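Deliverable D5.2: sample structural annotation.
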Amino acid sequence: MSEDTSMMEVFIYESDQLLESLEDILLQGEKEHELNPEHINEVFRVMHTLKGSSSMMGYDSLAKLAHATEDLFAQIREKGASKDDWAAIFDLVLEANDALKAHVNVIHEGKTPNFDNTDLINRLHACLENLKTGLPASGGAAAGSDTGSGGTALDEQGAGTVIDGALADDPEALYYRIKATFEEGCLMENLRAFSLVNELLPCVIKMCTIPDDLESATAADYIIANGFTVFLKSTENPDKLKSIANGVMFVNTASILSLEDMELVPENLAPVKAAPEPAEVAVVAELPEASAAALNSAPAAAAKPAAQAAVSESIAKQNFISVNVNKLDKLVDLVGEIVTNESMVTKNPEIASLQIQGFDRASQELHKLINELQDIVMSIRMVPVASTFHKMQRIVRDMSKKVQKTVNLVILGEETEVDKNIIDTLSDPLMHLIRNAVDHGLETTDVRKKKGKDATGRVTLEARNTGGDVIIIVEDDGGGLDRGRIIKKAQDKGLITKPENEISDKEAYQLIFAPGLSTNEQVTEFSGRGVGMDVVRSNIDKVGGSISVDSAQDKGTTITIRIPLTLSIIEGMKLRVGQYIFIVPMLSIQESSKEYAKDVFLDPNGNEMLMIRGSVYPVVRLYNLFNLEPEKTELSEGILIMINSERRTYCLFVDELIGEQQAVIKPLPTYIQKHNNGMHGLSGCSILGDGSISLIIDINKLLVD
């Protein structure tokens, strides 16, 4: 991979992260009707970093837009904004954030962004001018061209110019020097230095840096060769300053030392008679307890000898690295192959007949290590759903304004982790469900008041783990689904032929996922075309998940999505029917017994039912479903396994339970998938120890109501 390609990947990744962070800050601030000083500084830093990196990469349109937004927040940071101004500021900056995202997306596609942002930039400048003159902030036409005002301290500094921090001056403040180096090959070292300065700004009174111009063409090369040095004045604990420096992304080492002698402080930071060159400054001590008197009583004398107590710098390595997801995919595939081959070796019929004690011990140890390797690799791919969930905040915000409803999005369980491939598939289904809940599920404010409800509608987005699955719930407190209207629409479209009184609520609500079915009377920007919900179901099906709906009139609707934690490897139980081997996920098996056969009876429709401890469950003969030739047809001769599926509990009748099997899930061959109408209960296949193929049962789709 070329250096240019690596820099581009880093630029795209970090720009995405910054813009996501920016959107979260703006949405949170909008709820509170203003941004606090910390968030104002953060927005300013994000825009400054984007401006610098975009300019260095040659994306002028992106850099100019970031610069205009940065100018606006430089003014807000310095002079503030009134409560009445914030609504317009949020609208304008969120629009700028969308435009910046569009730029980065185009770059990610390998194209050059050529957007015309003139109107948006002019409106940002107009808002800036209005704030300066005391007029209400607005996104109207610009008062003039680019003012260029409000740039950062780093823009305005010349050689040796001091950067003002966020803290007020204090006679007891101490002077420090921080020396940082960055990870080899991290690229754009000058932008890493920007990040370090920005993180320190809230904790310092003033500072200066070497090199001083971080936007110069030679800054990155200088930092690679000599490191990055920050001189600063602060009242903060030096341990905190060092911790902040070590926490900046890509920082390899960071050390801090206190400058007890004023002559060791650069002239531009504190006036002294003769400050030596920074490279010649002797290390006085690391993290000493210097007093204000020591700082302020130093006469205009020569510097202390270089022999004074030098202490070695401590090193704090970065705990995180960025890895291409394609490499992780390859690693998962390799682990799957290792699991398969381990099974083929240890369960080889020729070896199984031999009693080799040493081999058994070695194979058990190998199995333990492979399991540990598998767990580690799978955990690497697991990512929290937080980023996907937080994207829904923007959707709710924009939609609530357009449909003129007040909506509160409640997010629960955002720390729940899911396989990265699955979470990438979740974004579109969740977007459709959230839009549907806001536009179609929640009533208008007037209607809610008439029903005695809170004027603000609530949409809850929740994630939680249950065994080997993740449950995601989208719930609203709206009017609920109209069962009668859904059934009528489905009948009109020929989707069902049964009378309404024979259709259960669950069946009726599942009809909303049928292609082309919508109960909205009017087509809006967001719903009413009969598309979207069928896409939700198909996307969930792709990752082996399932979706169910529950609703109550005037109380709301709950949509539950169940998806596997990972798509690759499961712990399963091998079952035999005739000469065929099937695998059922272990987590779905509740119990099994041959004794259940005596409790089986026929219901009025002739279906076999099993009563266990006062509860009745249907009996499913697996050989009937797949048209197989069984070895045993008498229930007393085979075995009944109680299966807990998402929709119901049922008993599966098979010839024999063989034993546990760690199964690497492989997709069914294409030609089988095309002719899979009668095999709806299969989710994939796996290779057994003897090299034969076993089919994996999808317990949620095996028994169709």
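Annotation notes: The first strand starts at residue 163 and ends at 164. Residues 3-32 form the longest helix (30 residues).
The annotation will be released with the project's public dataset once the embargo ends.
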